[in-house]
Amino acid sequence: MIIAQLSDFHARPRGATAYGGVDTNAMMRGAIAAVLALDPRPDCLIVTGDLTDCGLPEEYALVREALADLPMPVYPVPGNHDRREAFAAGMRPICPLLPEAGFQHYTVEDWPVRLIGLDTTIVGKDGGALCREREAWLAARLAEGDGRPTLIFMHHPPFLTGVSGMDIMTCETSPELPALIAAHPEIEAVVCGHYHRPIQRRWAGTLGFVMPGTAHQVALDLRPDTANSLVMEPPAFALHVWREGLGLVSHTALIGDFGPRRGFDLDPDYPGEHPRG
Ligand SMILES: [Fe+2]
Ligand SMILES: [Fe+2]
User: Fold this and answer.
1) Are the C-beta atoms of residues 78 and 104 closer than 8 Å to each other?
2) What is the pLDDT of residue 265?
3) Which end of the chain is more exposed for a tag (fewer CB within 10 A), N or C?
4) Least distant ligand from the CA of 8
């Protein structure tokens, strides 16, 4: 099974750009085209929040239109730039698992890997949270699982990364959440967006994984108390590959034209035993 992950489209109304000229809509379409061009094609796509920049119905219409090119099921969760009601109304036509109202989380039971999407948003805030109600929902879903490998996806990472400008808007949880996660070794990874950077860390006995966005990125800045800045580093998507005997492996793929593939052709005077690769 191959699960593609895209994050942080930040779609704008048609013709509009974001943050002084970032063409987020064109870059969203480029990312979707990159997924569509994959061979083998992913079985499904998860989208880890900030689908739109302002949570406007017209922005969700553009996201829907762009995702309609994909033949596989799409499972989105909201981010802090989304608006829960508009997100639900805009995304339910392509993901009927989303609730009509309330927290936008759900499980996907159709695959060899169980997917659990969590809504970490707090109305009007950049940071996120899994409040007691949401943690109780997650605990109940984990308790009813059948032991299949499980991937949790959410917008705000529930762990710190050392990027101070983003760690002030991470996902607040109760002190018990890491123990809940650690008690379920079937959780192969917790995959997130929001930080607009590629980040991995060990957390709660599982892998914490953060994806770059499909448009602008957050500059890598490890100085304390430093405000975020934006940088146009290459966008990316992830492929979470699960196979019996292989387990779950997460690949990050950059989006862009990096030239044709070439063989490992060696110079005639290459010394030694002629390694390939
Ligand atoms: Fe974002
Ligand atoms: Fe975000």
Assistant:
1) yes
2) 87
3) C
4) 1
